[in-house]
Amino acid sequence: MNLIGTGIYPLNQAARLVGAETRALRRWLLGYSRNYKGERVRSDPLWETQLKDEGLPEDVIGFRDLLELRMVSAFVQHGVDLKVIRATVESARKNFGRDYPLTNQKFLTDGKRIFLHAIELASGEPRMIDVLRKQFVFSDIIKPSLYAGIEYGNDGAIRWYPGKRKTIVLDPDLQFGTPIIANAGVPTDTIYAAYLAEGRDKQMVARVFDITVGMVKDAVEFEERLAA
């Protein structure tokens, strides 16, 4: 695989970008073992990552993985059981014929039906499901705002603008997908490091990198939001 156009994200960086804990991402993407009724039970990863067979450390993922994790994180934050999430991913993959179905634009409109079907598959007891409550949960999770800033090509998501303005972009074709200033190509963490080194002087940093003060401000706010 050509790594340009794929993106490279260590799990600790991915966790910051999607707003989840690194250990949670490890469980979702690397699988885990647990004791169940006196036996050791293995839970498989939710999916195989883009870079699984590339000879890289196992805790490195690609751009498509990152965007899917945003959706998984949203489900988890709303209390959806991991079994239901797994069934949702598998059902959506079959319905859309895509390896990364949650960020498929169709999931925004067709996902509720898939989600309810996944609940039945995971529970095995469809008659006991509180359908109205589950529909509310899904509508509360999957919103247009989750897809805002994602740009699509013929084969799915190709870049992500994580802010309200398109100052910052994650594009796997540029610097392996690290967050950068869109019109300058400077990584936001580099700008933030310079901002701290220059005594938080935004004008000085802007002059150093030949960018606007507004770009510096957006980069600083982005990095501080991730740190929080």
Describe what is shown at a glance.
The chain has 228 residues and is mainly alpha-helical. 50% of the residues lie in helices and 12% in strands. The chain has a domain at 161-228: Orthogonal Bundle (Arc Repressor Mutant, subunit A).
Summary tags:
228 residues, mainly alpha, Arc Repressor Mutant, subunit A, two-stranded antiparallel ribbon, 8 strands
- Please give the radius of gyration in angstroms: 19 Å
Strand order of the largest sheet: 1-4
Architecture per CATH nomenclature, i.e. the level-2 architecture of the domain at 161-228: Orthogonal Bundle
Q: Which fold name fills CATH's third level, the topology of the domain at 161-228?
A: Arc Repressor Mutant, subunit A
- Main sheet overview: 2 strands, antiparallel
Distance between the termini: 34 Å
| Beta content | 5-15%
Give the % helix: 40-55%
Task: Give average pLDDT, whole number.
Answer: 90
Any idea what the shape is?
Answer: globular
Helix-strand pattern: EHHEEEHHHHHEEEEHHH
Question: Number of DSSP strands?
Answer: 8
- Which stretches of 5+ consecutive residues score pLDDT under 50? none
Secondary-structure-derived class: mainly alpha
Q: What is the CATH level 1 assignment of the domain at 161-228?
A: Mainly Alpha
